[in-house]
Amino acid sequence: MQLTVPGETDDRNSRIEHAVAAVKAGDKQSYELIIKQFQRQIYTYCFYILKNHTETEDAVQDIFIRAYANLHRYSSSTSFSAWLYKIAYHHLLNLKKKQSRWLRLIEHFKESQQQQPVPPAESVTSELLTYLTAEERHILLLKAVEQYTFDEISAIMGLKATTVRKKYERLRKKLLERVSHKEGARMHGAISGANKTS
């Protein structure tokens, strides 16, 4: 997530719209500005869904290729960012559909065998994300990390804004229950351990 200064967002959007217009007019080099502006955000979004650096790199490349190929369909009636995330969302859905259960099981086994130590905060976040469905992870990342409005998320995911809002509230409740359950179990363990030493 990038912090922005008032007015900076408008300037950024203006630069992006100018670059899009230049690419549509035949200036292929202007697409580099678009890639530089969104590559890190799209990579982060894809990684939280795919959980694999190699697959994420491939997905990001495919997303930017698809966006370039479909740039003639982009209209400035929506933000370029939301349009690009819609492409990313649908591409990731297609990727997940193509993966069979068996391949995911094998991949999970390989990753668990090669796991490197993860900072506690990162491992807690990753663990909590495993309790969410793919759709819930998309909604959480778009709302909490990328800070899109419910209307923008509904346009990206092809759902009604009220549906997105309800799903977001449900997933927040699910995560809060999971966190309080973990805290309760940890506190119970600490109390049990203290009672045994007394």
Summarize the structure.
The chain has 198 residues and is mainly α. It contains nine helices and no strands.
What would your notes on this structure say?
There is one protein chain. The chain is an all-alpha fold and 198 residues long. The chain has 2 domains: 1-101, Rna Polymerase Sigma Factor, Chain: A (Orthogonal Bundle); 120-198, Arc Repressor Mutant, subunit A (Orthogonal Bundle). The chain is 77% helix and 0% strand. It is built from 9 helices and no strands. Helix 1 (8-24) packs across helix 2 (31-50), helix 7 packs across helix 9 (161-197) and helix 8 (150-157) crosses helix 9 (161-197). The longest helix has 37 residues, at 161-197. The protein is globular and about 60 Å long. The protein starts with 7 loop residues before the first helix and ends with a helix. The model is unreliable at 1-5 (pLDDT under 50). Residues 35-101 form the RNA polymerase sigma-70 region domain. Keywords: Sigma factor, Transcription, Transcription regulation. It comes from Paenibacillus silagei.
SSE layout:
Blueprint: H1 8-24, H2 31-50, H3 53-69, H4 80-98, H5 101-113, H6 120-129, H7 134-145, H8 150-157, H9 161-197
Helix pairs in contact: 1-2, 2-3, 2-4, 3-4, 4-8, 7-9, 8-9
Measure the end-to-end span: 47 Å
Q: Please work out how many helical segments DSSP would assign.
A: 9
**Rg result:** 20 Å
* CATH class designation of the largest domain: Mainly Alpha
Q: Kindly report the name of the CATH homologous superfamily of the largest domain.
A: RNA polymerase sigma factor, region 2, helix turn helix motif
| CATH-assigned fold name of the largest domain | Rna Polymerase Sigma Factor, Chain: A
Per CATH, which architecture of the largest domain? Answer: Orthogonal Bundle
**Helix-strand makeup class:** mainly alpha
**Helix-strand pattern:** HHHHHHHHH
The general outline is globular
Major sheet, described briefly?
A: none
Relative strand content: under 5%
**Low-pLDDT ranges:** 1-5
Protein name: RNA polymerase sigma-70 factor (ECF subfamily)
InterPro entries: RNA_pol_sigma-70-like (IPR039425), RNA_pol_sigma-70_dom (IPR014284), RNA_pol_sigma70_r2 (IPR007627), RNA_pol_sigma70_r4_t2 (IPR013249), RNA_pol_sigma_r2 (IPR013325), RNA_pol_sigma_r3/r4-like (IPR013324), WH-like_DNA-bd_sf (IPR036388)
Domain RNA polymerase sigma factor 70 region 4 type: 127-175
Family: Belongs to the sigma-70 factor family. ECF subfamily.
